[in-house]
Amino acid sequence: xxxxxxxxxxxxxxxxxxxxxYELYKGNPYSxxxxxxxxxxxxxxxxxxxxxxxxxxxxxxYRDGRLVGRVAAIINHKANQTWGKKEVRFGWIDFxxxxxxxxxxxxxxxxxxxxxxxxxxxGPLGFTDxxxxxxxxxxxxxxxxxxxxxxxxxxxxxxxxxxxxxxxxWVEYKIYVPDAIPEKHLRISQLVQRKxxxxxxxxxxxKKIAREYGQAIFNLINEAFAPLYGYSALSQRQIExxxxxxxxxxxxxxxxxxxxxxxxxxxxxxSMPSLSRALQKSHGRLLPFGWYYLLKALFFKxxxxxxxxxxxxxxxxxxxxxVNALLFSDLxxxxxxxxxxxxxxxxELELNGKVQAQWEYFKTEQHKRRRAFVKEIS
Length: 378
Fold this sequence. Notes:
By secondary structure, this protein is α+β, with helices and mostly antiparallel strands. It has helices spanning 11-24, 36-42, 77-83, 99-115, 154-161, 183-196, 206-225, 236-246, 276-282, 290-299, 323-338, 353-357, and strands at residues 3-7, 54-63, 66-76, 87-95, 120-123, 135-138, 165-176, 199-201, 255-259, 265-273, 306-314, 342-344, 348-349, 364-376. The chain contains twelve helices and 14 strands. Strand 4, helix 4 (99-115) and strand 5 (120-123) form a beta-alpha-beta unit. Helix 7 crosses helix 8.
């Protein structure tokens, strides 16, 4: 039977779109499901502030009445304007190992983009850098993270068959928590703190950190990430959304701010216990018992031995000056006390030497690689 593509036009269709990933990866020991309610909000134009400058449609692929694939077609107009491109993004793509299915999905996105004046197709990407991005091409036997995409090994083969080429690669590391802060690392952190009159700030109140530095954290992200692949600046509405969404769930012991003598933010490090196993156990749902697994992973003593490095950002004029060393000199004793074995770096652009240089004093293992593909719309 031929492949039938249907546009998502109802809440029922959207639920099918989200659940297809759960069904395709059911029982897979490495895939980490998205939190279902978060996905409903992310894909809803009324709930996601990125729709101020993005447009999107979602599509489902059927063969003989059976759901066999999904894809989102996205245009980030701000990113296209920033980088001088006319690119349509494909995101949230999943499909069975059938080349007719993957081709039908990609052709649908191409046609959708062509109708809107786009000349190239790239992905997998979300609306912004706050969404998971990049197709896994190495590390299929490694546990995924809450912030990244897991996919089967056949996915990149389908992309290459469809004429896609590499646009950018990200690498991911296991960074092992040392028994003691590396001596050179400690010396650098002490030197940079004295030289630039920097202060380490810690909080015990989520409301207070949100009030005093919530806006500044995301302003810093916009400034530090501006040169990175495909980045589009977060809008004010997005910033307000993320402050409300993320800060309340953080264990503030694992959040470190670095400020200058005028109390202006110059660096931030945010990490949290891995939620990967908890999300697997909850099947991506908070109810009826998913909330218990997530709270246990976040706050109970017997939490995961894996740590997720969610965010490290340093003001451009302070990069390569040792501020990262100061951040981790504060955080490493916390990681040791809480019993973490290693941290997941999450995605780092392979050519971003500034980021990778910060791990030179630690034992590391590069265990995953993912890729954004691109091609001209035919």
